[in-house]
Amino acid sequence: MIKEQIILGIDPGTAIMGYGILKVNGNTTEMLAMGVLDLKKYKDHYLKLQRIFARTLSLIDEFHPDCMAIEAPFFGKNVQSMLKLGRAQGVAMSAALYRDIPITEYAPLKIKMAITGNGNASKEQVADMLRRYLKIPLESMLPQMDATDGLAAAYCHYLQLGKPASEKAYTGWKDFISKNPKKVKEN
């Protein structure tokens, strides 16, 4: 039986960041919130990163999640896009680490597989399954699939609770540093 907890799910992006908040109590799940942070109006990449940090921090301060589930960047052909996406993910993770919120990363394929049973499922299929699992009224669904992608990360984490951890999880800055010694440069 899973104790009551709140999971923050994040789908990082520099154009749109999706998020979903899931409340778990035993085997019962309830969506508390889902939405997007639209960053398309900002031209400055660093301003976008600041907005991602601020919004993630405000979600943490409002909902007090016990953990964060975040979609890991997928490997594409455009190196610049990958760099920007990695920065967006890192800034969202930094906000969670700043508040000592444990983080677990999930590959997009793992999230889709956990929700639909098909790692190649479309965003629409993932959204529809979440709507059914969480009994979300059709009129409450957002047109931006980034929102349901964030919620999917949270739901995937819920499904993994009680199973051995196979994804990267960090409980704070010290834990991140100890698990990534080659990524940390000391002065």
What this model shows, in words?
The protein starts with a strand and ends in an 8-residue tail after the last helix. Strand 4 (67-71), helix 2 and strand 5 (103-106) form a beta-alpha-beta unit. The mean pLDDT is 88. Strands 3-2-1-4-5-6 form a 6-stranded mixed sheet. The relative contact order is 0.20. It has helices at residues 45-63, 79-98, 108-116, 123-133, 145-160, 173-179, and strands spanning 5-11, 16-25, 28-38, 67-71, 103-106, 169-170. It has one domain (5-179): Ribonuclease H-like superfamily/Ribonuclease H (Nucleotidyltransferase, domain 5). Helix content is 44%, strand content 21%. The chain has 6 helices and 6 strands; from the N terminus they run E-E-E-H-E-H-E-H-H-H-E-H. Helix 1 (45-63) packs parallel to helix 2, helix 3 (108-116) crosses helix 5 and helix 4 (123-133) crosses helix 5 (145-160). It is an alpha/beta fold and 187 residues long.
What order do the helices and strands come in, and which of them pair?
Blueprint: E1 5-11, E2 16-25, E3 28-38, H1 45-63, E4 67-71, H2 79-98, E5 103-106, H3 108-116, H4 123-133, H5 145-160, E6 169-170, H6 173-179
Parallel strand pairs: 1-4, 4-5
Antiparallel strand pairs: 1-2, 2-3, 5-6
Helix pairs in contact: 1-2, 3-5, 4-5
